[in-house]
């Protein structure tokens, strides 16, 4: 699904250049749940941003379903993000004035679909994440775990092949976090790929592979035997 070859990214800060990624090569297959771990400053966020076409590499290639995405212009990057990627964040990023189902429908609205037309699929996805009875609730009326479930449903509404999650359990207690990880693991059974940046070492047991970053380089890639609490 995704293939990175010799990807580098550096930032210029004043006179200094920081090498955030220093020649990364890796493949991510369809249906794989991948964790990216590593110390602060090792390049995790930079890598996630490149995978989601939020930013472009300085050199190297990023191929997504056999198409180069590393050199897209801004409009094409935006188009790629809208249709190919679902994002899940640490702090959920829900709009407080909208109900759960309206939050789920937002990517459809941004893509020009009317709210009413998007509703059936939004309700279906809330059902899928176990919140069928919370569709009319606003974020303030939901627990952290429920808000993250809404965010996962929102990430799925465009049917993207790739879900990128940035510390999805970082703001949840460990039991609630585990249920979100199980939900992400379940999603990959439909063939979606999930790539997650995490500090939570308990999270890696839900994954197929763990990529350890260190100073912008891949220190190791470990294959994990998934512990499946679900079906
Ligand atoms: P991590 O997510 O593992 O903490 P990052 O990808 O955020 O690592 O950062 C990798 C390196 O790049 C760090 O040295 C960081 O300071 C630097 N960096 C990240 N983003 C920027 C930026 N926008 N401008 C300048 N330096 C940055
Ligand atoms: P544009 O405004 O360029 O059309 P969008 O803002 O619609 O792009 O972004 C498309 C997707 O990328 C959205 O799902 C959004 O959540 C995600 N996104 C945009 N900016 C960021 C960011 N800085 N960090 C993480 N995800 C982002």
TrEMBL record:
SMART domains (alphabetical): AAA (SM00382)
Domain of life, per lineage: Bacteria
Protein's UniProt keywords contain ATP-binding: yes
Keywords: ATP-binding, Nucleotide-binding, Transport
Ranges where the ABC transporter domain occurs: 2-231
GO cellular component terms given for this protein: membrane protein complex; plasma membrane
Molecular function GO terms recorded: ATP binding; ATP hydrolysis activity; transmembrane transporter activity
One Pfam family of this chain: ABC_tran
Protein name: ABC transporter ATP-binding protein
